[in-house]
Structures are given as structure tokens and as C-alpha cells.
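Materials and Methods. Structural model of Platelet-activating factor acetylhydrolase isoform II. The 719-residue sequence of Platelet-activating factor acetylhydrolase isoform II from Actinophytocola oryzae was retrieved and submitted for structure prediction as follows.
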Amino acid sequence: MRTIVVATALTVAIASSPVATAEPATPYLPAPTGRQPVGTTSLYLKDTSRPDTWVPSVPYRELMVSLFYPTSSSHGPKRQYMTPQESVANLERQNIPGLALDVFSTVRTNAVVDARPTGGRHDLPLVVLSPGYTQPRATLSMWAEDLASHGYVVAVIDHTYENRATTFPDGHVTSCAACDLDGPDHPEFDAKLAAGRALDTSFVLDELVGRHPAWRYANLIDPSRIGMTGHSAGGSSTIQAMLADQRIRAGANVDGSNHVPIPDSGLARPFMFMGETDEYVPGQPGPYDDWETDWQHLTGWKRWLMVTGMVHQSFTDLGVLAGQLGVDLGGTIDPNRGMDLTRTYLRAFFDQHLLGRAQPLLDQPSARYPEVSLARTSTPFLPAPTGDKPVGSLPVYLKDTSRPDPWVPSVPYRELMLSLFYPAASSRGGKATYMTPEESTALLTDSGIEPLDLLSTTRTNSVAYARPAGHHLPMIVLSPGYTKPRATLTALAEDLASHGYVVALVDHTYENAATTFPDGRVVGCASCDQPHDPAFWQKLELGRAADVSFVLDELTRGKWAGLVDPSRIGMAGHSVGGASTIPAMVGDDRIRAGMNIDGSTEFEIPYPGLSRPFMFVSHERVPDATCAPGNESWERDWPRMTGWKRWAEVAGTQHASFTDVGLFADEWGVDIGATTGGLRTLVITRAYVNAFFDQHLRGRPSELLDQPGYPEVAFCHRP
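The predicted structure was written out as C-alpha cells:
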């Protein structure tokens, strides 16, 4: 068990550590980031209800706990980081040339010993911290000081006999009795460790928020706002503590392997995984794939964050202190940067779930912290657009009274809902709704994904009803796949708009799971009840072509006329939406360029062919066989395209990879059979769609259309 077996912070780096040529400067903890000074005190706690976990001859369990809390003044003696005995115990096996064994007793800290805390009765949330196996509680001091500076009480537990040394008030020092047993990677040991730490945590909570608290200022703690996190074994123990004690409202595991699985009954309270990219890789088998299993049993709010460049100890004080002492632990991230992002994300997690302060940082990747990726999430989000323009969007209701509905002829008109995306004058304002709860429920029913209205919570990037910026802009019509609502192409639409396009994303009524109209009506998929023979698909494609021509009529006149340039219109779509691009272009020469993303075409291009620019983009039809033959409809259409044309295939993708569905599958841990991830596929799709329309609507040639710029992309046919 890698995350538990590390003996001390410096174990992994000693062999290659440089010999110190001069006395190193006094190590120190960087200042906390909050506005409040930090106080600290130590508690000695004795649980007489049980013998010691590791030394049964001791008829009680004794613990040392460091409390950190906000105070009013930074003046006074600062807390000693470790005692000399603790420092020696943690470093004596390391044999680091030039490094004094008692160096950790000299670390300068920021917390004032026994300062009077600030706050009112039941005013302060509490966070419990649990260190890694063999690690003293001191190694999480930077987490604790930072949280306290932002208004938390923090209790850091030394789990006696599980670390190299714990010093008690009477002067006796305990060592690591657990280290002499059959240790990590033995199921019985792992279970005992987790269960014992859960008992330790509950006992500490009893002593802090119970009837007879051990701290004189315990009435400042709000017992309804308690969280827990830890590093390595301390992180994995957080789950077991939460399962055993309902008082812990939210928890996080920082780089700890969970060798005791979550039971099938699950854990419904908020939880976050945060780990290094070399381990715990989502969807990949490996020695530490227990997060993947436990993820399925976390049934509440949840996140899985991966941090590039970190090693196991980068998350703790020891990453920073090792850097100051000239010891290289590995990794490519600056130690102070690693601590900064660790503290920032942990604080954001507890701010959201203990203080009720929404944290956008937890909803999508941040430009401030590009090292952090959201590997899994329970709240869907769309990656930020890549263009330099803010994006606005609004719903548009259109009614074509010139024809009855093709699927429900008793309705004497065709009504459509669009989402219109465009460059906006400002990025300020509330974000647009992805889809309604009713649309989400209709789409997710029978999918096994819950709650059914989950997609209505998706975080978008476009500002609802923002004022448009610009005039006479090129426009692209997007058409989604059959049964899929227009929302499933939103990530592509937002990106195009951020590059200066107006984008009309069309819901083809009665052809998707659900469409919501402004008056509150929700209509379903009437076409789904009809036989899906070749005549059906041709009717579908021709009907969509008629929808698109009507949309062009409406958006190139009236109040939209100044925004849209009618001489620069393109169309693209996914699946049958892509297939419908061909009859739409044949029937309406206002569409100057078109793209079919993975859609088989029933409609045949008539003589003399289609002379305007066109591009096919396909998923990998045969694994490990680039551009395998067999796409009969595209082979039929290819020679009838007499203008500029391309045919590209993206390796490792599946049909849904090109839509937001591929993104959500990655975020939720749902396997759609793709080996190229949803985010990577979106990057490629956005790049080629932008390049294609930039070249053919704006006259900006792109090398990407002549030489594939991504290793996953191959051109199957050239003119």
C-alpha cells in the first residue's frame, strides 16, 4: 500500500540528496492566506472506554491533538513544530548528509500558543485532520494554519503508536508499535488501521462537541458543521470515520489508497478525492484503482481532482520543508505551488459544504490552477471556450405556419426551439441553463444515472440574455443527433461563439427526448413510435433541411438582420444532424459550407453534385484500423462532392464522443467504449470545426485542414 508504507516525508529522496555545503537556513512554514491571525493549543485526551489499538496491555487509548483556530493577535510565542525527540525519530533512519536530526524542532511556525480564540457561541466550523501512516500530526500544520486563518477550528490528531514518535505532556514518548506488525497491504492490518482511526476521530469529536468538552473554548464550535480530511492513510481513514460518525458532514481524501471499500449502502455526504496523476488514474487498471470502485458508492456531491507534477508528499508540509532543506522529493511542481493549490482546493471544499459558500473552483477547470484537472464530477460542467470573446446565449421560439408538423400532422404548424449563441459585450451575468429538469429527466430515464434532473445543473459558460457584440457576423447552424436535445452540442456552440460566430442550435421538435417551450409545454419524441426504415430516415433528413431553411429565413431578417451576415452561413451537425447537412445544402444555397460529424446519410446527392466545401469527420469504425472501409453512404456521396472536401477519422473515439455526452461520461465515470477521452475529443472537434469554417466563411486558410495536427486524426480521402 504505497500511500501508507512511506515511512517519512524524505524516504524516497535520500539516496540522491545533495550533500549540504553550508548550514541550511532555518526552515519555516509559509504564512497562512486568511486575514485572521492563528492561535494554537495542544490537548491530551485519554479514552478509558477501550484499550490501545496497537498495545493492548495499555488499558486506554491516549491521544495528542493540536487545535488551531482564529485569534485576534499575532503577538506571542509561536508553536514548536516538533519536539527534538520527534524530529530525531523521523529523520534518524534517513542519513541525510549535512542535515541535523533535530532540524524539524527548529521550524518556524505562524500559530500563537494558547492565544485566546475569536468567535461567538457555536460560530466556528470544525475540520479534523488525520496524517499519513508513520507521520506525526505536525506534517499537516500548513493545512491547519491556513484553514484557521479563514475562520475554522482545526483538530489535527496524532494516532498514537502509528507514527515514529508522539510526545506527551508528562515527557514520555511513544514510538511506532504498529510498524512492528504485519503492515500495509495486509487486509487485516488495513481494516484495523481504518477502524482504529475512525474510533480516534469519534472520540476526539466527543471531547470537542460532547457534553463535557476538553477544551475550554469548545462552545465556539458549531457541532452541525464538522468536516474531515487527511493525507495518505489519513485521507483513506476519512471515509471510514464518516461511515461510523454522522456528525462528519463532508470529507476529502488527499492521495490515500482506500483498502477498506465503501459498502454497497454507499456514502451520501459530500466527498472529494485529490491525488497525483501518477496514481489513481480514472478508468485505468492499476495497483491503486480503489478510488474507481469507491466512486460508484459515493452517492452525494463528489469530485475527483488530479494534480500534475505532484508526488505523494507534495501535498504535505514535508514537500515545502524538504525544498527548503535542499532535499529533492521528485515531482515537477514547485513545493510552494503544490501547497498553495492543496490548501486552496481543500478550503474551497469546506467553504462550500460547511459554510454554504458556492465555489466555482470546484465546478470546472481553473485557469489559475492548470495543474488541477477534474477527473470525475457529480455536477456536469462544460470546459471553457477557447476564443477570446465572452459568450452570450438565449432561447428563441419560432413558428412556421406554412406547413404542418411532419410527425404530428394534427398540429397545423411547425414550431421550433433554438439556442442562439453569439459574442457578448460582457462576461458578467448569470449563466445560461443547459436544459430544463424535464428535458434532463426524459434523456436520463433508464440510463442508470441519478438524479434524473442532473443535467439541468450543468455549469455552462455563456451569459444568459447578454447583449450581443458585433454585427454582420458569420453564422453556423448546428443540428443534433436523433433523440438528442440541442443542448448536447453546447460545448461546441459556445466555443464557436467565442471565436466570433453566431450559432443557431436547433431542437427538431418531436425528434428528441423532450423539448420545453416558453409556455411550459414539454413535448416528447413522437417520431420514436414510427418504423425506422429507410423511408423514415429520408423523411427525417428532409424535414430537418426544411427546419434549417426556415431558421435561416427568420434569422437573416427582422431583429437579427444586423447581427448575421447572410452571405457567410455554414452548417454542421452530429449523427443524423450531420447527415441532414447534405440535403439542407442541396435545398438551400445560402449554406456556403457544411460538415457531417459521424452521421450516415440516407439522402443521396443528386446530379450534378454538391460543389460547395464539405467535410466528413468519423469515429474510429474498426479498432486499430485507420480509415477501414465500410462507410457505404459516405463512399457513395464522396465522388458527388465536386468542390473542396475532406474526410477525417479520429482514433479512439465512439459515436457519442463528439458531443457533450462524451464529456459527461468522463466526468461521471461512465464507459462509452472510447479510448480517447471526451475532453481530448472536444479539443480536436472544436479545432477542426473552427478551422473549417474559418477557411470557408472567413477566407482564413488553415494548415490543420491539409496536414492533421493531432496524432489521433487521419485523413481517409483527399480530393
